[in-house]
Amino acid sequence: MLDVVQGLVEQFGDMVVVQGVDDGPAPAGAGDQTATRLTAADADAGEPGEAGKTAEREERVPVERLAVGDVILVRPGERIGGDGRVLDGASEVDQATITGEPLPVAKAVGDEVFAGTLNGTGALRVRVERDPAESVIARIVAMVEEASRTKAPTQLFIEKVEQRYSLGMVAATVLIFTVPLLFGAGLESALLRAMTFMIVASPCAVVLATMPPLLSAMANAGRHGVLIKSAVVMERLGQVDTVALDKTGTLTEGTPRLTDLRPLPGSGLTEDGLLRYAAAAEHPSEHPLARAVVEAARERGLALATARDFTAAPGVGVTATVDGTVVTIGSPGRLGAADAHPAAAEAARLERDGRTAVLITLDGTPAGVLGVADRLRPDAATATTALARLTGTAPLLLTGDNPRAARRLAAETGITDVRAGLLPQDKAAAVAELQGSGRRVLVVGDGVNDAPALATAHTGIAMGRAGSDLTLETADAIVIRDELAAVPAAVALSRRARRLVVQNLLIAGTFIAVLVAWDLTGTLPLPLGVAGHEGSTVLVGLNGLRLLRDSAWRHAHPAANRAAVPAAAGRDGGRDGAPQLPVRPGTADAPSRP
Asked: According to the UniProt record, where is the region Disordered (predicted)?
């Protein structure tokens, strides 16, 4: 278990830094080792002897050796080694692996942090509060393993039936041969009838009824960017009647985008002028919001000046000098914008609309406000509409993001059942509760925080482009092309494959029943029996291969099926009561820049 956790808390070199206070003289021999470690650490830091002056020593230890009460040093850009609370320092931590939030979260003294999350630009001293085996990331892995073990492949039932049928067929063949002999029938006629029975009763067509449709559907889905891991998964996918979707990276693109430019009255700036200052100041920053601003300037073809004297204050914002003007960018509240100031009112309007507001000041004077949001996927509304039509109920949203952001996105896609602020174990519990009430749940997600829910669900699909290794390993299917509309297409294709399986079983069963009855009357010629048996096998195989055609995917894809969804009804309304969902693009809320 801890080996897996160490793999997730990667980029440590399998180690973290543990700090301890030196309360007294070290035992003989210990000082040399401590001195060597301090020398190496001080050489890296460029300030020899500083650690010795603070009476602290640093020791590199494996993650599994951490204990409750240890204090770990997390440098900028490192992953946090254990669950705990910040004792000293301030930074922004990327918690997407745990909560799914698209933007880093400000962390200061007293705030909780999680193992496996990525530290930003500040250094943190963290007191470990959970044993490594009990950390959130370790519990995620444990839940994935436990849920995966509970899945029983449906193929076992088919194999058992096939074995018993074959044994019964052999026994019946022996009886058909021996019983007529006991009543004086000729050896040749009894043998011929028994041989004909064995041929026509053989379950070749029955066995072939299942795999060609499923494998053809898998191959077709694979050509269109959906990797189905097994034929059992392909069959199970068509059984789902409830869909649970993650927010960040699944319904949304997972990347903040600049949505609004609001120069303040009296600033004398146009939108391009405001953006030019903001992008130039943000250009040296690695913050996701900074990348969104710079990308917007590039899309407009703006030439950026060189920023000088750049500084980034974790939890506050950035400051730089652009063309002789001091530009400061950050949260309106943290930059001291008065409530009565037009900037505060503009920021409040943006936040009510579901945006993250960013204030820009020039030489200390508010000049404008930017709005940033995690943009909804272009095909998100189409996909949710198609899923509602297929399952008879609107999908539900399971997210670790804040409720306001979740509700905003749900309104854009027509989702009414929103469950926000969930940790990974909460998502898995929600899925287990749904399945406990008799539903077959399909979970679609992309992050480590979605892995337990994916493993618990009847079927799980991962968005592959941004999916974590654990999520891709846990999911039953992977959308490689990162197209959400491929999810309902795969479900529809699976249902069509299941219908073909039923057709094939009916064809095979009809042929076997007719030929066996004909043979038992004693009038079926052997060549005709062979032709009927082989013909049914070929017919069943060719029928299953129909799903290899590209037209099968086109008919399953929601882009080709944009018919109006029936009027909204509850879950009890069945497929004819699928809720009406709007098909329109939009933007989702994003957490504020700390």
From this structure: 559-594
The tens digit of pLDDT for each residue in 320-367 reads: 999 999 999 987 766 555 555 788 888 888 877 777 788 999 998 889
| CA nearest to 496, candidates 423, 433, 561 | 561
Look at residue 44 and tell me if it is in a domain.
yes
d(CA 261, CA 360) in angstroms, rounded, equals 11
- Give the Cα separation of 238 and 103 in Å (integer): 35
- Per residue in 6-27, pLDDT tens? 444 444 434 455 554 443 333 3
Phi, psi of 352 (to 5 degrees): -65, -30
In a domain, 130, yes or no: yes
Looking at the structure of the chain, the number of domains it has is 1
- Structural domain containing residue 77: 2-134
Has residue 88 been placed in a domain?
Answer: yes
Tokens of 364: 């200390």
Judge contact between 107 and 141, C-beta under 8 A.
no
Q: 477-479 and 459-463 as β-strands: parallel, antiparallel, unpaired? A: parallel
Catalytic site includes residue 246: yes
135 vs 63, 171, 468, 573, CA distance in Å? 11, 59, 18, 43
Number of residues in the chain = 594
Which structure tokens are listed for 196? 């004909």
- Which CATH number is 56's domain given? 2.70.150.10
Question: So what's the pLDDT on residue 68?
Answer: 85
- In DSSP notation, 453-482 reads HHHHSSEEEEETTT--HHHHHH-SEEETT-
The single-letter DSSP state of residue 247 is I
Give the pairing of strands 365-376 and 587-588: antiparallel
User: What distance in Å separates the CA atoms of residue 562 and residue 101, rounded to the nearest whole number?
Assistant: 31
Model-level pTM? 0.62
- Name the catalytic one among 22, 70, 131, 246: 246
> Which residue from 80, 105, 422 is spatially nearest to 289, judged by alpha carbons?
105
